[in-house]
C-alpha cells in the first residue's frame, strides 16, 4: 500500500525522474507553455510552482532595498541547471506574478495521443495567455478570407455543362468592354 506517499514515479528511477522534471521545468520557463503527458504535467506543475514561489519571495525581499538574494538563485540553479531559465524566472516571471498568491500554472487536457493512447495535456503559465491570443487571432484571419471566391478543386477537372457555359460567359464579358473602345478609336 502507498498510504501517505505523494508524487508519481513516472516509470523512472529517482535520478531519471529528477532530470525529467528539471527539463520540463526549464522548457516551461523558457517557452511559457509545453505539451506533455498529463501525469508529467501534473508532477512538473508541483515543482514549478515551488520554484516560482521561491523566486517571487526572493524578488520581493530585493525590492526592500536589500542586495540580490544569491542563495535563492543558487538553490533554483541547483535544480534547473540552466542560467537562462534562472535569469528569466527571477527577472521576468517573478516580477509578473508578484501580486498572485499562488496557482501560477494551468494544466489543460487535450485528449489521447494517437501513437500510444497516452493522455496529453498542455502545461502553461497562467499570466502568459499565449493560447488565448492565438485563438482570438484565428477568427480574424478566417473573416478576411471568407469573401474570396475559390477556384476549381485540384485533381478533378470541371466537366459539367454549367461550368463550361459560365467560363465562356466570363471570357465574353471580358472582351465586350474592350471592343467598344477599339471601335471608337477606329471611327475617329
Short description:
This protein has 188 residues and is mostly helical. The protein has helices spanning 14-31, 38-62, 70-80, 83-96, 130-145, 161-187, and strands at residues 33-37, 105-112, 119-125. The chain is built from six helices and three strands, in the order H-E-H-H-H-E-E-H-H.
* Oligomeric nature of the chains: single chain
Task: Indicate the radius of gyration in whole angstroms.
Answer: 30 Å
CATH superfamily of the domain at 14-130: Ribosomal protein L17
**Mean pLDDT metric:** 83
Structure classification: mainly alpha
What do these coordinates show?
- This protein has 188 residues and is mainly alpha-helical.
- The chain has a domain of 117 residues: 50s Ribosomal Protein L17, Chain: A, CATH 3.90.1030.
- It has six helices and three strands.
- Strands 1-3-2 form a three-stranded antiparallel sheet.
- The N and C termini lie far apart (104 Å).
Keywords:
single chain, 188 residues, mainly alpha, 50s Ribosomal Protein L17, Chain: A, three-stranded antiparallel β-sheet, 6 helices, 59% helix
Amino acid at each position: 500500500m502507498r498510504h501517505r506517499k505523494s508524487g508519481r514515479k513516472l516509470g523512472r528511477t529517482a535520478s531519471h525522474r529528477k532530470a525529467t522534471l528539471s527539463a520540463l521545468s526549464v522548457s516551461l520557463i523558457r517557452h511559457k507553455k509545453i505539451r506533455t503527458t498529463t501525469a508529467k504535467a501534473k508532477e512538473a506543475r508541483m515543482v514549478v510552482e515551488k520554484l516560482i514561489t521561491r523566486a517571487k519571495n526572493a524578488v520581493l525581499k530585493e525590492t526592500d532595498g536589500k542586495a540580490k538574494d544569491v542563495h535563492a538563485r543558487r538553490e533554483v540553479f541547483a535544480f534547473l541547471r540552466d542560467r537562462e531559465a534562472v535569469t528569466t524566472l527571477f527577472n521576468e516571471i517573478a516580477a509578473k506574478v508578484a501580486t498572485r498568491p499562488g496557482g501560477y500554472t494551468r494544466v489543460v487536457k487535450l485528449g489521447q495521443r494517437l501513437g500510444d493512447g497516452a493522455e496529453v495535456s498542455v502545461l502553461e503559465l497562467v499570466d502568459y495567455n499565449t493560447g488565448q491570443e492565438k485563438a482570438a487571432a484565428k477568427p480574424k484571419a478566417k473573416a478576411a478570407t471568407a469573401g474570396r471566391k475559390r477556384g476549381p478543386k485540384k485533381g478533378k477537372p470541371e466537366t459539367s455543362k454549367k461550368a463550361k457555359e459560365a467560363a465562356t460567359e466570363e471570357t465574353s464579358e471580358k472582351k465586350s468592354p474592350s471592343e467598344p473602345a477599339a471601335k471608337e478609336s477606329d471611327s475617329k
